[in-house]
Design a protein that fits this description.
CATH architecture: Up-down Bundle
Helix content: over 70%
Distance between the termini: 35 Å
Number of strands: 0
């Protein structure tokens, strides 16, 4: 593994880590009104395209990280659709402030 591979792996893992608060907030609030289904769908489709590309080029490291991203996007899409159909209870102002404090 050369330096650019290590850099790619570190930045990919950091990006995934940076996405954890979004998933956590969505899971805790069980509401997805503020998330754009079309944007997340487009990111998912782009990731599928990129997966096909890296598979064709035999880039193992990129294949692994791309697969992880694809699972992440699929989970986000599932939660967005699920919580739109079955939203959690609305939060009052005090509860919303507590959720914001936990996710920051």
């Amino acid at each position: 593994m050369n330096a650019i591979d290590i850099l790619y792996l570190i930045t990919s893992l950091a990006s995934l880590g940076a996405s954890v608060p979004q998933v956590t907030q969505l899971f805790k609030e069980k509401r997805s009104d503020e998330l754009s289904l079309s944007t997340w769908s487009m990111w998912f489709l782009c990731q599928i395209t990129f997966l096909i590309y890296v598979t064709a080029h035999g880039e193992t490291l990129m294949l692994v990280t791309n697969t992880i991203w694809l699972v992440f996007y699929a989970a986000m899409l599932w939660m967005i659709v699920h919580y739109r159909r079955h939203p959690g209870p609305a939060l009052d102002a005090e509860q919303a402030m507590n959720v914001d404090a936990v996710t920051e």
